[in-house]
Amino acid sequence: MAAPVHNPVVVREFGDAGHSGRDYRTEPGTAVRATLAGVVIQAGAGGVVIESNAIWHVYDHLGDVTVSQGETVETGDRLGTAAGTYLHYEERAAPYEADGHRSPQFDLHTNARRYG
Questions:
Q1: pTM value?
Q2: Three-class secondary structure of residue 4 per DSSP
């Protein structure tokens, strides 16, 4: 049986009034999974940051973080659950400064389409 197709709905776009990522509609308690494999460089306080191939993948507005700093995660691993009605996701290119943001590609990752 094929995995269900998941088409995330963007509720706030990258670049809108200085917005540095995309906000995706979700339901509280929805599992949030890693878009790519990498190392957790920050976890807690409602967010997770994973470094993968010189890109920081930032997940924010998590109610339950299930990974720890220093842990290695694989594509599709559960990072936690959504705290509210949207998930903030952004990508930052090295050297990770304020002007290092790029348009997020979360909805293009195979993982985003496979896992709900």
A1: 0.72
A2: coil
